Amino acid sequence: MAELILEITKLSIADRIKLVQEILGTIAKDTDSQDFVLTDAHRTEIERRSASLANGKAKTISWDKIETALTERYGL
Prior knowledge:
The chain has a domain at 39-76. The chain is 67% helix and 0% strand. The chain contains four helices and no strands. The longest helix is centred in the N-terminal third of the chain and has 17 residues, at 13-29. 0% of the residues are buried.
């Protein structure tokens, strides 16, 4: 694993971000796996954040603004 991390650190920031996005995509596909189990703490936090969004207390940023900021900063 250490060798893999060393190789990854040689990538540009933009390429590392793209790699992370790809990895997260593979994780999302495997969430039905027994290897992926939410703890009670995770469920509680998800419920807290969901409630915060539902009642309008959460401060959010649109994906368009995030994408624009990443593009400007990293050239994605």
